[in-house]
Structure to design on (440 residues):
């Protein structure tokens, strides 16, 4: 009976996240298909995708770096110790600090976008950079909204309330699709307005989840409380490592802007397809087991900690390895069937399908990184994942840059695989050594 209960604690949340993640990718596919048919793989979508780089970097450096890896285990610890009032004040403080910080940064970045634009898109013309600046300024509203939403998401995870947490990306994609209806009147700026629609929908869904969870916020902000000081201390190293994914694709974006028009879009579309199994099986399983790992680490239960990692790792590999084989063999079919048509034909399909085939190699390795990193976060160690992620970043971008002249667009996914392979291997070895020292 206890074994069944333990499996239920793990499988039910993982199942909920897998289903909602699948729904998210279905709506994401509808988004990509809509945009592909409307614009094809050309400079318009290159500009749109590039406009996300700075807003995403802001959100990941100053907000996401503190929430999932640091805020969630600290909040879970307080609630496990029945310190509900302290947990409420802590949540209020973190939410206020996150939204306030991003608001200030959004204003500053909006002012200096004309200076920033040439660095993120060196291959764009002057006219294309003007469009990039305009779209980026509109999209900069979304990180402010998402800062609050991400804070609420961490509270939902600590509460083991995964339904509304998982639904939020679904409604976000629907908001982006709504932006396509504004294109006839507003041009590319209509897509940027759609991002705002999506961010608001993302936030509303998580507000509903919080109301249903019964979580109570504190009525005041206290940045002097010990838990908030501990969060700032722990998030320091993570601020350097959490935006690595965005920095990695920032490097890829710079390389792609110097290749044929549409290369940025091809990388974006193929990465979206490749990330489906990573999210379905890697991220979903890792997020669902995260509270269990945090609880086991908090009480020094090494046996339970190792068991959670082992079961989750085997589950991830059982799904991600077949996913890689499938995309390697027939990776061009989903591109043709799901994106082909309208202005997305011929070379657009070939370029995207080729990139997807090589990106698929990284499905198992990237998925294991999510599990190993969260295992370190549960142990309240953010330094090792940061060092390893920076190592992966350097390897990925270096390999892509080194081979881009010879191999063109496929150098980018090959670089991505090389970086994730090294990072996953090093994290696994270091995690094994660290768990052996966990108090029983």
């Amino acid at each position: 009976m206890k074994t069944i209960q333990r499996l239920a604690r793990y499988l039910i949340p993982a199942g909920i996240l897998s289903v909602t993640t699948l729904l998210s990718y279905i709506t994401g596919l509808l988004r990509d298909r809509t945009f592909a048919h409307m614009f094809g793989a050309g400079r318009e979508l290159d500009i749109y995708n590039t406009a996300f780089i700075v807003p995403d970097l802001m959100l990941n450096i100053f907000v996401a770096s503190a929430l999932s890896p640091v805020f969630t285990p600290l909040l879970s610890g307080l609630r496990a110790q029945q310190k509900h009032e302290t947990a409420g004040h802590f949540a209020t403080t973190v939410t206020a600090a996150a939204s306030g910080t991003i608001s200030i940064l959004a204003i500053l970045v909006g002012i200096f976008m004309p200076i920033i634009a040439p660095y993120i898109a060196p291959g764009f013309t002057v006219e294309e950079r003007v469009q990039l600046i305009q779209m980026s300024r509109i999209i900069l509203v979304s990180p402010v909204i998402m800062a609050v939403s991400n804070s609420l998401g961490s509270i939902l995870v600590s509460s083991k309330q995964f339904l509304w947490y998982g639904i939020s990306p679904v409604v976000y994609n629907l908001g982006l699709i709504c932006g396509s209806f504004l294109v006839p009147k507003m041009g590319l700026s209509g897509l940027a307005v759609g991002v705002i629609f999506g961010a608001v929908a993302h936030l509303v869904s998580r507000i509903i989840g919080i109301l249903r969870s019964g979580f109570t916020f504190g009525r005041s902000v206290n940045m002097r409380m010990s838990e908030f000081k501990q969060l700032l201390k722990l998030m320091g190293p993570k601020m350097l490592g959490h935006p690595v994914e965005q920095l990695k694709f920032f490097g890829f974006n710079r390389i792609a802007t110097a290749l044929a028009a549409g290369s940025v879009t091809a990388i974006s579309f193929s990465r979206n397809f490749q990330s489906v199994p990573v999210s379905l099986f890697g991220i979903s399983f890792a997020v669902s087991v995260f509270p269990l790992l945090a609880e086991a680490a908090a009480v020094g239960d090494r046996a339970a900690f190792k068991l959670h990692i082992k079961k989750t790792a085997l589950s991830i590999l059982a799904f991600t390895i077949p996913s890689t084989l499938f995309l390697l063999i027939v990776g061009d079919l989903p591109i043709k069937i799901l994106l082909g048509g309208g202005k997305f034909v011929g070379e657009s399909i070939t370029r995207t399908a080729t990139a997807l085939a090589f990106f698929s190699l990284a499905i198992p390795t990237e998925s294991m990184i999510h599990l190993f990193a969260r295992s370190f976060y549960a142990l309240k160690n953010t330094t090792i994942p940061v060092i390893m992620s920076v190592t992966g970043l350097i390897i990925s971008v270096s390999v892509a840059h080194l081979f881009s002249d010879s191999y063109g667009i496929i150098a980018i996914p090959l670089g991505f695989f090389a970086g994730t392979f090294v990072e996953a291997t090093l994290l696994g070895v270091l995690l094994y050594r660290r768990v052996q020292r966990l108090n029983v």
